[in-house]
Every structure is written in C-alpha cells, then in structure tokens.
Write a structure and sequence with these properties.
- The complex is a heterodimer of chains A (190) and B (101).
- Chain A is mainly α.
- Chain A has a single domain, classed as Serine Threonine Protein Phosphatase 5, Tetratricopeptide repeat (Alpha Horseshoe), CATH 1.25.40.
- Chain A contains 8 helices and no strands.
- In chain A, helix 1 packs antiparallel against helix 8 and helix 6 runs antiparallel to helix 8.
- The longest helix of chain A is centred in the middle third of the chain and has 26 residues.
- Chain A is globular.
- With 101 residues, chain B is mainly α.
- Chain B has a domain of 63 residues.
- In chain B, helix 1 runs antiparallel to helix 3.
- The longest helix of chain B has 34 residues.
- Chain B starts with 11 loop residues before the first helix and ends with a helix.
- About 6% of the residues of chain B have low confidence.
- The chains are: A mainly alpha (190), B mainly alpha (101).
C-alpha cells in the first residue's frame, strides 16, 4: 500500500499549495488580523513540522538508493528545523528577524539536495527536468527568507516566500513517474 | 445649517480606507474558489487523469483518489471551509473596532 513516487509528490504538492494559500491570505489581511486566532498562527509551522515527519517516513522507504535516502533525510531535517523556528516565532519564544536565516538555509540546502541527487541531465525525463527546476528554484527563493532576515518590514520578501509554495506545488503536480518531458506532446525524453 | 443635522465631511484618507476594505475580504474569499476552478479546468483539460469518470481502466486507491485535479479542488475546498470564513470575520471585527486601521 506504499504510494508511488508521483502520488507522494502530488500529496506534497497539495500541502505546498495549501501553505501557499494560507501565506497569501496572511499577506492580504495583515499580521494583526491573521494572528487574532492562535490556531492560525500555529497553522503554517505545524504543517511544516508534520510534513517533515512525513518526509522522514518517506526516507524509511527510500532504501532503494543511498542518494535518495540521503536527499529525503536532508529535506526532512531541513523542514523540521524550519518548522521549529517558525513555531518558536509564532509562540513568541524568539523574536529576532535573523531567525529567518534558518528557513533560508533550509530552502538552500533542500535545493542543493535536489540538484545533487538527480543523476540525469535536464531533458532526460520529466522527473529529471522537474528535479533540476525545483532544485534551482529552491536555491533562488532562499533569497526571500534571507531578505526577511535583513529587511523584515519589506513586503516583497514575504510575498516571494508565499508564492514560493504555490510555484513548488505547480512543479510537484507536474511530476510523473514515467513521462517524456512535455507529456503527451512527446518533446524531449529518452 | 444647524449643528444638529450637520455631519463632518470624511477626509480623503478615511474614504480611501473604506474603499480598500472590501477588496481585502473579497480577495481572501476568492482564493479558495479560484483554486477549485483551477482544479476543475485542469480536470476538463486532462480528463484521463480522473479515474473516477474513466474507471474502465482500473487502478488502485491512489489512482482514484490522489489525482492532481482532485487534490487541487480539495485544497481549495479546505481553504474555503476552514480558513477563509474566520479570516473574513476577524477582518470585519478589526475594522469595526478600529475604523482607522
């Protein structure tokens, strides 16, 4: 009853899309309104922490390849650390904007893990293409939490961070276990 | 004009705030339905992804329930039901309490 890789990726995409919607809603209503209910403040960190537990479960089943096992471990650990920091920020245990460097580092390391564990070139398959695309995207979007650490008041960093999850969802939803790069159009691929 | 019936003229800043408020509530409410519409459009564009309407091909539980368009609709629905109503309600409460915010 273990789901196929593409199914696991679509479930991850759903989680990313939901996070994106929540963060966009927070941007629209503003910090004060969003934090009026405690559960909403804990929603994003909790989802990230639960997702990290899910990633650890996937790690357990990634024994078919050392590279995949290591990559999933890194994503799980990165998500756990970022979620823990976001939870501490939401609870008011920590305050300094510099803590945003942890999610920035988590995104950067996750992106590097994507790039390193994909052995095939960009156009080998859709999966390879998406691994490269997601890897580079994560490396670049690490700038958003980094910017939030340096300039916490600027809207552009929080907007970029929210849209990151929507873009990640789009890319993960496009994943297929076996498909040429552009699906039914038959372009690229082996 | 007597002072009993004279009212103050709202300044431009207040008028601007009043005009901006409905946009925020509407945007929060539209996020979920727009996501669901995206899932429906995706399902129409790629109907072969939805085994529920093409069950002749067979497949396991994941093939029936965990397909992209269905998951997108589900996410939009979850946001619409669980997140948006509370946010709109709190947005209105804050604006009632502090009209200048």
């Amino acid at each position: 009853m273990i789901p196929r890789a593409e199914t696991a990726h679509w479930i991850a995409a759903s989680v990313a899309l939901f996070i994106g919607l929540v963060l966009i809603a927070e941007l629209i209503v503003g910090h004060e309104v969003f934090y009026r209910r405690k559960w909403r403040a804990y929603l994003f960190p909790s989802i990230v922490i639960v997702a990290s537990v899910g990633l650890w479960v996937i790690t357990i089943f990634s024994t078919f390849s050392t590279m995949h096992l290591l990559a999933h471990s890194i994503w799980a650990q990165a998500a756990l650390a970022a979620g823990a920091v976001e939870l501490a920020l939401a609870r008011g245990k920590i305050h300094r904007p510099a803590w945003s460097l942890v999610p920035a580092f988590a995104l950067f390391v996750s992106g590097i893990a994507f790039l390193v564990h994909e052995q095939n070139p960009w156009l080998y398959s859709r999966s390879a293409f998406l691994h490269h695309a997601i890897g580079w995207m994560l490396v670049v979007v690490a700038l958003f939490p980094l910017g939030r650490a340096v300039q916490p008041g600027r809207l552009v960093w929080r907007t970029g961070f929210a849209l990151t999850f929507v873009l990640l969802a789009v890319l993960l939803f496009a994943d297929r276990d076996a498909a040429p790069i552009f699906g039914r159009f038959g372009l690229g691929g082996p | 004009m007597g002072s009993e019936i004279a009212t103050s003229i709202p300044n431009e800043r207040e008028q601007e705030r009043v005009e901006r408020r409905p946009w925020r509530a509407l945007a929060v409410q539209l996020l979920g339905p727009l996501t669901m519409v995206g899932g429906v459009v995706w399902g129409v564009a790629q109907p072969y992804r939805i085994l529920l309407i093409d069950h002749g091909r067979g497949g396991d539980l994941y093939d029936y329930l965990f397909q992209g368009p269905l998951l997108v609709i589900l996410v939009g629905l979850a946001y619409t039901v669980f997140v948006a109503p509370g946010l709109v309600s709190d947005l209105e409460a804050v604006e009632r309490r502090d009209p200048a915010s």
